[in-house]
Design goal:
Elements: E1 2-4, E2 9-14, E3 21-26, E4 37-44, E5 53-60, E6 63-72, E7 77-87, E8 96-99, H1 107-115, E9 123-127, E10 130-136, E11 145-152, E12 159-164, E13 168-173, E14 179-185, E15 194-201, E16 207-212, E17 218-223, E18 227-234, E19 245-253, E20 260-265, E21 271-275, E22 278-282, E23 285-286, E24 291-292, E25 307-308, H2 309-317, H3 325-333, H4 337-354, H5 370-378, H6 384-391, H7 397-403, H8 419-431, H9 439-458, H10 464-482, H11 493-500, H12 505-516, H13 522-527, H14 530-533, H15 537-553, H16 562-570, H17 574-582, H18 590-597, H19 604-619, H20 623-632, H21 636-647, H22 650-661, H23 666-682, H24 686-695, H25 699-704, H26 724-727, H27 734-746, H28 757-773, H29 777-786, H30 792-810, H31 904-916, H32 931-950, H33 961-984, H34 989-1002, H35 1006-1015, H36 1023-1034, H37 1045-1050, H38 1052-1062, H39 1068-1089, H40 1093-1101, H41 1103-1110, H42 1115-1131, H43 1164-1167, H44 1173-1197, E26 1201-1202, E27 1205-1206
Helix pairs in contact: 1-32, 3-9, 4-8, 8-9, 9-10, 10-11, 10-12, 11-24, 15-16, 16-20, 17-18, 19-20, 20-21, 21-22, 22-23, 23-24, 28-29, 29-32, 32-33, 32-34, 38-39, 39-40, 39-44, 41-42, 41-44
Amino acid sequence: MAVYDGETLRIYEFDHDDCHLHRHQQCPSFDQNSPKLSFLHVYNLQDTNEIKSHLLIGVSATSITTWYLEQNTSTQTLDIQFKGTVEMEWPQSPSLVVSSSQWATNTSSKLFHRLASKDQTVLVVVLGSTIYFYGFEEMMEAMEWKCLFSVETELEGSIGQVRCTPSIMAVVSGSERPCHLSIWMEMRPGFPPNLVKSFRFNERICDLAWNVSSDAQFILAVAFPRSVAIFGQKRATSVLNDDDVWTCYTEFKVDTAEDISALAWVDCGVLTVASGNQIRCYLKWLTQEDRLGQLEKPLNNELEPMSSIFDISYTMNGPLPFYHPNHLIHYIMWGKMDLVNSILVSLYAFLRQFIDEENTDVVEFPPVSFPKILLLQNAKSKSHQQKQSYGALFDDDDEVEESLDMNDDDDGAVRLLTENEAKNLAYTLKSKSLPGVNENDRMHLVAMVNTIVEINNEGASLDENGARFTVIAENYFHLLKVLPDEKKPSLQARDYVWALHSQSQDLLLERCISLCGDRFLWEEARNLGIFLWLQKIDVVRDQMGNIARNIYLSKTDFRDPIDSSLFYIALRKKNLLQGLWRTAPFHKEQAAMVKFLANDFTEQRWQTAATKNAFALLGKQRFEYAAAFFLLADKLKDACNVIIKNVKDYQLAIAICRVYIGDHSPLLKDLLENNVIPTAIENNDRWLVSLAFSLLENQKDSIRSMVVPLTQFSKNDNSEMVNVSDSVSNVYEPNLFILYHYLKKQLKQNSQLNVSYDVEYRFSLLVSRSYERLGCPLLALYILTRYYMKPPEEKKKEEENNRLDRAKDLFADEPAAVKPSYATDLFSDEPATKPSYADDLFADEPAAKPSYANDLFADEPPSKSSFATDLFADETPSSSNDLFANDDDIFASQPTSKGLFDSDDENKDSDKDDDETSTQTPDEKVYDGLDAYKALLVIRILQTFFHAASSLYHTSQIHDDTYEARYRSHFIRNRQSLIELGESVKIPPHVFSRLLMEKSIETDVFPLYLYILNEGIPKDFDVHQFLRAFKVGCFEVNENWITRHCHVMKTFPIWNSLRMRYCNPETVVLTTKEIALTTYISSILVTLKERQYEKSWGLIFRFKMFLEALGTANSETALQTISNCIKQLYEGETKMVEMAPEDFESFSDGSVIGFDMEEEVYRPLLDSQDKSVGANLLEAASLNYILSAIEHAMQFHGKHNLGGLKL
């Protein structure tokens, strides 16, 4: 402890066993003449050779003074070295100084701190409204401090508090009332964070404290004078809204006499609160009195009797399960159909084999093989799958059912979901709720299952963009059937733009018409964007005719020719329209219209007459009919203006224009440039802007509009150009990233987009972050690692070095020993080694042919790959250890892809091209500041699988050993793959193993990890730390034990064995007995309190036997006897008193015992509220029996002594 009294600075040391001062020493080179210190902080350095070292930092008004502290192993004292005083050029005195190591307490926070940056932030200094972040150079004799970056907050009022993590900063500003809390975030530590959320409070904020859970959830505790609020992030629900949502998880009152002065997080989610002379510790558990924030899905009272702050953070911001429809749709957009089929087949197998048909609430997560997911995400399909997809049509259903086995997930084999399985799965999902999926998501999932089957049947005949559009369209129509009217979705430009870039438009049109059924009217055509993406003008006119006919025939009782007039006149079918009027004698306008349409509208007089009628109809607000009369007068521009301004339907205007005059008219160009594009820019609809430029055959601007400021395409001379760095922060849609990738590859090699590298780099980061915010961390990691880009600053250095090297080579007397690549050695006669084509932009040899990803109809695909279901796969699986082997640089300009019907020989060359495309090997990658963010993503993935495995222990239902064994085996296999993935992002195996241990402690899933330790102790695993946490957890007596006490008791042989091997031999037996007795009594107390009488009876029935075993003098015999007693408790059936059926009538409504003895489903939070006289008497009698049994055992074995236990 460092103490500064205004004159001297002393270091006090404490003994390891108590908190009494033993010695102190004065810091060298610091006396009364030294600058007066305003702040004093300790920064913990990374331990080397198990020697702890620290920096003691004193900050004055104008300087920073530093001492280096290191533990002397021989004398067990601190060695103190003075590192100098540095004068700082500050314009004013610091108002606040914070050490960045204050928040780094547990494993995950320390990991993020270590990976945060090359130049780690050590001090945060507040000067006015500006926050400065300081680090130090390599430690020399004198410490050199440097400013890493600064943030101009522009916040109202003075800054009162700052709490930082490597990527998030919380700032309190303003006066006491109101008080402002702002949260700032940045993906790359070492760069200034951006403001993402602000809160306004009408009371003073006393203190802040960050907690980073073992699954990388950032939780902020905010202390007010008499209450504490817990804030955290909320998962994004749509790509349309990328705002960082921070919300209050819970808030509780602190009933102390004085205001709260400070708070801090300690191990296992315990929050310590200081108030006056009190320090209170609050456990992680939430009670019914806690006021919770709004959850996406309310907690199920029957299955979740109690939750912790970590459960809430997972519900609010945890990763989506892989079977979630939002997860599936993103994988479909990437073309990972094998992966999607594998997930749905696993889900079907799980529901078929392990879930009771009568159980409508499924608590367990379906086991998913992570190695298989990694393989299918990064690899192409297997060649046998195409044959299997057709053969599955003739499979016997019983044989298919027999083949379903969750243990087959790791063999890499994938088969398609059959139509019969899809039908059964959809039926099952309609009646069962899955964890992590709310009611609306469940309807989406049902629609997705039906969609996947359609894609499986038609996918081989579609190109990649056609398949994407088909998925969206199929899912859309399925949702129309199952969702209520107020929740029915609508399609936008982002949905049908894929059809515009598809070469399978005939198939897409056929499918759209089939999905619409008998109701293919203009509303359906507009919603599907058909007249925007259909390219063949003859087909466009045919579909306009079909729509006109369908509109006329849609009304069986009153067929009005007016409804289809605009379409028939646009098709120049005036005579056909006149015939329809002749068949409408009931219409009051029949005679006039038949006579009027008989005229020749090529004559000026009749065009004038049609124009007058059009204006008359405008006055009556019959806009579509007015546009039809303008067309009769051959005034197409006026008709389109009416449709644009009055009908407000730009698609109808484009459709009429295309049908009436063709695709290359100046009017169509004017519509797109002066109406569609400006409107899209005003609405910030990049998809529509890109689509419009594609219709104008302006491919460059179609691509640029996805990432550059949209104001660059505005014709308003007064509009200010927006900074690229500012505008790109809004480009975060993952599907836009896919389209950008696709269209850029279609450009010719000599085309220049004029999109800076900085913008493209930022685009890729924001897309990755969007996936993370959507709950898809694996896809976020996929973007960062598979499509790696060097940071812009490193790219600029590299380009500068290349320019210098080329300048030197121009005047070199002799050629270099190793010839450069073709890209830099333009005049070389014979290269030593052929470089990769990505670097060899000017090679004489033609580029290799495209891969099978673009050749869906090849006769003989390579033996190892098939794209029947993986339409968009980019490359074959890599055998390297990098789980995310790098793909092609998606922003590198490449030749236009070959057609779908290239020969097999050409495609063999295509594979060669894929192999030779330049990618960054791990050794070539430079530091990009994203190590901590990648680690966060991997830890979030860990959260998914841990919750899947631990869900088995969060239910009141007791499963058989085989069921549990399968879950554990899945988790152990996934654990190894997760550790390997962690190594690829610089998480050491022992750190990852410790994260798993901490997660089991946070979620109280000790049995899961006990089984893992029973099978083998992981390398560098701290068993003693785990057993100590296990012991603490066993003494927490609360309602949570109603679902977990049996698992702890059942694992007694395992943790008893571990304790005997790793704990203090002098106290291990007594402590084990103490844990066993505490657990047993706690189980009785909680089951009685919760009115779970059947479990209480079994425990009470064998309680005396348990006490006898506990009192056995011989320690080894005692522990063995306890183990046998627990085994009998769970293997033997203990029935309650037999009663005649008629006796139950006296225990139902109106009885003294309110608990319904015939209730089949135990409902903890409902049944525990039973306060009837009979229930209270039964509880009191049971407790009396327990006390009597304990008293008798104590008397028998000795007063206050039971087998060595002091009671």
